[in-house]
Amino acid sequence: MKNVTLCYIEKNGKYLMLHRTKKENDINKDKWIGVGGKFEDKESPEECVIREVKEETGLTLKSIRLRSVVTYVSNEWETEYMYVFTADKFEGELIECNEGELEWVDKDKVMNLKTWEGDRIFLERILKKDYPFFTARLEYNGDKLVKSEVYEY
Predict the structure, then answer these.
(1) Angstrom distance (rounded) from CA 90 to CA 8
(2) Are strands 60-74 and 134-141 parallel, antiparallel or unpaired?
């Protein structure tokens, strides 16, 4: 199993989205996702998301909010625990990302992007700023979402 982070950075009614187009053998190839990545040894979720955002975007997060923990289960890949954050305070200028193109996307257009089916489940909740903390379990057969459960707190 692996632990990862994902962050949706907000500015002027838009989210910073990453169109994954550059990496070879990328499980997220051609999909739009937030910014984040795998934990390093001894890292907390907060340390991981701050480091990953800095590496991929050049931005230094100044305020983060844990919105959800999502468990991905698959018949093809190892189980993944993803800590989903939002952020609306940051410093710095965007850099070129080695994983794809970064783009500020209007919140009302995010759901029109090509994403994982299960991402829509948590994106709908995250786009509502005051939605309570929740966890989700998303089960995939290949690229197809076959089961989803959401628990609200």
Answers:
(1) 12
(2) parallel
Residue-wise pLDDT tens digits, 85-95: 999 999 999 99
Asked whether the whole model's pTM tops 0.90, one would answer yes
CB 82 within 8 A of CB 70: yes
Query: What residue numbers bound the domain in which 136 lies?
Result: 2-152
Number of separate domains in the chain: 1
Write out pLDDT tens, residues 11-55: 999 999 999 888 777 777 888 999 999 999 999 999 999 999 999
CA distances to 56, 77, 99, 148 from 140, in Å: 27, 9, 23, 9
* Cα 69 from Cα 134, distance rounded (Å): 7
